[in-house]
Amino acid sequence: MVAEVRPRMIIALGPVAAQAFLGVGFRMHLSRGQLLDTRWAEGWMATFDPEAVLRLPEGRARAEARIHFEADLRSAAAWLRQRLTGEARARRVEGP
């Protein structure tokens, strides 16, 4: 189904979603926030499940998880902006 949509980027929210793509060997604590090139999309990233972040008790762990989650989303957005800007430049050079 993902192949039909052909997304530029996939962000897996949580380890279960990430393991659905990369297998049970995926470890969130080792690969969270890393941008990968996969067969499903040019960019692929796993980050925390936002619901899991909200379920953490108030305090340092919750604050740190939220900081990492937000940083991952900013990183993904920057990657997409860079890709789109590069494609726009290429279209201008190549012409219509």
Write a concise synopsis of the structure shown:
This protein has 96 residues and is mainly alpha-helical.
Describe the structure.
A two-stranded parallel sheet has the order 1-2. Helices cover 59% and strands 10% of the residues. The chain is mostly helical. The protein has helices at residues 2-5, 15-22, 28-31, 50-55, 60-94, and strands at residues 9-13, 43-47. The mean pLDDT is 90.
The percentage of residues in β strands lies in 5-15%
Order of helices and strands: HEHHEHH
Stretches where pLDDT is under 50 for at least 5 consecutive residues are none
Shape: globular
Global mean pLDDT: 90
Taking the sheet with the most strands, its summary is: 2 strands, parallel
Q: Total number of β-strand segments?
A: 2
Strand order of the largest sheet: 1-2
Fraction in helix: 55-70%
Q: In whole angstroms, how far apart are the ends?
A: 31 Å
Number of helices: 5
The Cα radius of gyration reads 16 Å
Structural class: mainly alpha
List the helices and strands and how they pair.
Layout: H1 2-5, E1 9-13, H2 15-22, H3 28-31, E2 43-47, H4 50-55, H5 60-94
Parallel strand pairs: 1-2
What would the keywords be for this entry?
2 strands, single chain, two-stranded parallel sheet, 5 helices, 96 residues, mainly alpha
